[in-house]
Amino acid sequence: MDEKYTTKTLLIELFAICLGILFLIPFYFVIVNSLKGFSEILLDAAAWPRELMFSNYAEVWEILNFPRAFLNSLIITVFSIIGIVLISSMAAWKMVRTPGKISSILFILFVSAMVIPFQAVMIPLVKLGGILGVMNSIPGIIMMYFGFGVSLSLFLYHGFVKTIPLEIEESAKVDGCTQFGVFWRIVFPLLKPITVTVVILNTLWIWNDYLLPLLVLQDASLRTIPLATSSFFAQYTKQWDMGLAGLVLGITPIIIFFLFLQKHIIKGIAAGSIK
Amino acid sequence: MRTEVDVDGAYMEKRKKSDVKAKRMSRIKKILTYAAFVGPALLFFLTIQIVPFIMGVSYSFTSWNGVSSAVEWVGLDNYIKIFTDDSKFFNSFVFTTKFMLAAVFISNIIGFGLALLLNIALKTKNILRTVFFIPNVIGGLLLGFIWQFIFIKGFASVGNLTGLSFFNQPWLGDEVTAFWGIVIVFAWQISGYMMVIYIAALQSVDKNLLDAAKIDGASSVRMLGSIIIPLILPAFTICFFLTISMAFKIFDLNISLTGGGPFNSTESVAINIYQEAFQNNRYGLGSAKSILFFIVVAIFTTVQVMTTKKKEVEA
């Protein structure tokens, strides 16, 4: 609250930096030990490696089939998000612009479903997925993410559309724009700030999701990063040299994504929660 | 004259008809556009969330095992069994509730504390904000594996270096410490997230108000208690809502860190349901458990939102 930088502020700053280092220590342990041989890890986990063993990574890269898992995660995340953004922004806009009983009932339905825990849906979903023939397939799981993602995203879009003045759309309508024209050319670009939030929240969720892929994707070739890592860990229990290299590989993509977009992510998270 | 009127009347009639027709056409067009915009979202939502949920309710009254096509109606048997003869499920509920209470308090205290720290004009505040938030972008599954290593090997080596008995315990091998182990990792993951929400709220507090209070001689603690916290109560509602629902539904972190052990002492409700359905192949029983789980989650979250909202109004 003080604007001046006093000795007290300096002490607080040092304390905060210590806390920051404390937060990062687990990463130090994981990265340092991922570059050691197995016996060296057992000897002393805190020490710096005597010799950097990049061979751990080379081996794990093969065993995990990392490029495959990365690509699967990427395809699933990207296409799920494109779909979620499209269907929820369109629906939210139309619902706000068509006030009435149907719109408000639908809105309540979409939003109240956020209370349903995934566990209360997953058992029949596996059965239903089998009937619809969407099990064990990447397009299948993408469509499931559409269904699960739509509640929160529609809720966020709904709140945002209300803040957009009607006049802009009306002048476009007078100019002879169709409904789709109005939406795509005028409304959708205006939704950009909330679209960023929707994309970020859904990316963090879908990229890291474990249970839905575990239930839907059985083929080893379809595994996402969390799935590949967990089955790898089950095979190499307590073989830390391999396990840690696998973990570092697993967390790298999402950490890079975060560091590149951190400003947007932190802003988007705050905006998404306050709404 | 008469014919003229007739012609006029017929003309009006015709016009009225085409008016009605045009109105009907535009109404149909309106409905179709509405369906085109809202339909896709509704279709996926109903098929993926609502239909399975309703199916789940009906499965909970059957003895379905997931394989056989003959699904036998058993009435309330599953529910009776859960309440009278399933101590494992009951224990998982007790664990999850205890865990939720500990996790919600600790991660909100840390998150709010960090937010207060970073609300001061520190030179490193942007970097620190990033640092505290990082654990949150990693999924619970991988975090659990990371901390498995920290608890087993990392803590042991820190214990050797410092001689502190805190680090020399069999963390994941003991019921009490395994419980706190999960709480620690959850707090490590979530407090950065809570911090971001609290920072946003703190920044919205009117600076003039604080300056005025300071001139009046209010201490920092007093200002925090009487001005800042009442003003940002909505942020507390959000953070409590988020942490309660995340902690109560814990699965990924739990399964990779302790796998429910030792001796099932850290088995969350979500894990119990998963195992009942997909490992014991008792889909009917699993469905009944999941419906109970839904009811509890729904009650928890509504009560929590309602009470905090009420406080907001009073304040």
From TrEMBL, chain A:
This is Carbohydrate ABC transporter membrane protein 2, CUT1 family. One of its GO terms (biological process) is transmembrane transport. PROSITE patterns: ABC_TM1 (PS50928). The keyword Protein transport does not apply. Keywords: Cell membrane, Membrane, Transmembrane, Transmembrane helix, Transport. It is found in: Cell membrane. The chain crosses the membrane at residues 12-31, 69-93, 105-126, 138-161, 182-207, 242-261. It is a multi-pass membrane protein. Residues 70-261 form the ABC transmembrane type-1 domain.
From TrEMBL, chain B:
The chain crosses the membrane at residues 31-55, 99-121, 133-158, 178-202, 223-248, 290-307. One of its GO terms (biological process) is transmembrane transport. It is a multi-pass membrane protein. It comes from the Bacteria. CDD domains: TM_PBP2. Residues 93-304 form the ABC transmembrane type-1 domain. It is found in: Cell membrane. Signal peptide: none annotated. PANTHER family: ABC TRANSPORTER PERMEASE PROTEIN (PTHR30193), INNER MEMBRANE ABC TRANSPORTER PERMEASE PROTEIN YCJO (PTHR30193:SF37). This is Carbohydrate ABC transporter membrane protein 1, CUT1 family. It comes from Gracilibacillus kekensis.
